[in-house]
Amino acid sequence: MTRNEHLRGTTVVAEIASTEAAHARAASAEAAHARGEGAGRDLGHDANSGAGHDPQHDARRGDTRARIQQVALELFAEQGYDKTSLREIAERLDVTKAALYYHFKSKEDIVRSLVEDYFGQIDALIAWAKNQPRTAVTRGEILRRYVNIVADGSDVFRMLHHNQAAVNSLAAAKERGDVFRERMTGLVEAFTEPGSGIQDRLRAAMALGGVSVGWMFLADQARDRDELRAAILSIASDLAKATPDLAKATPEA
Question: What is the SS3 string spanning 109-172?
């Protein structure tokens, strides 16, 4: 993927991330069925469970949501967003469409959830970084976490880029790029001291931008993606005058 392709994918992400939750549909018989016996097959939903909070059920539901997202991404990549239906996603998962409907009511909901999850990780990183001292070690840890966010989200970016015509219809009226720019601004501010000069802010922006472009440009060419993660982290850290823990460069660490 070229740098321009990545930037176009980023624009689509920003548009979708700003979409209002506009898919609140009236409860139909299918939805009622999904909350009942239809949602029970292979999706970890117990129709007879009580109203009390069940952490194990919540964990199962989270795992199921991730499974649906992964299978949807696979199908979107294989045959395109437009040509993929909820029925096909349910069939690959070996569940009923009603069971799938319990978690997502449309393909748009699935795409929106993928984008929201991606930006949610960046928001969490910004929130953590704001409470840390502005040191080289902190900058290194911000970069390490950001490298992993970008690497883990690359399939979403690729899907959005290859399905731009279809997913553009999901975009809200907010100006293109604003949402992504807001996150990058937050990360740059976490990198630098208040009142920092243009050189320090530019160094931070180039380090963060280099992570995104470097991964998207080289991920398909790298024989070892963990090695690529470490290389990107090392180069970005040099640029940002950061001190990363290279032993944690891979997500397993």
Answer: HHHHHHHHHHHHHHHHHHHHHHCCCCCHHHHHHHHHHHHHHHHHCHHHHHHHHHCHHHHHHHCC
**CATH architecture for segment(s) 24-105:** Orthogonal Bundle (1.10)
Instruction: Give the Cα separation of 122 and 210 in Å (integer).
Output: 16
Instruction: Give Dmax over CA atoms of the chain in angstroms.
Output: 61
Task: Give the domain ranges of the chain.
Answer: 24-105, 108-248
pLDDT per position as a tens digit, 7-58: 455 544 444 444 433 333 333 434 443 444 344 444 544 444 444 555 554 4
Beta carbons within 8 Å of 191's beta carbon, 6+ residues apart: 129, 134, 139, 142, 200, 204, 207, 208, 240
- Domain spanning 108-248: which CATH class is it, in words? mainly alpha
Q: Which long-range contacts (CB under 8 A, 24 or more apart) does 243-251 make?
A: 243/135, 243/136, 243/137, 243/139, 243/140, 244/140, 244/141, 244/143, 244/144, 245/140, 245/141, 245/144, 248/144, 249/144, 249/147, 250/226, 251/148, 251/151, 251/152
pTM: 0.69
> Residue 220 class from Cβ within 10 Å (0-12 exposed, 13-18 middle, 19+ buried)?
exposed
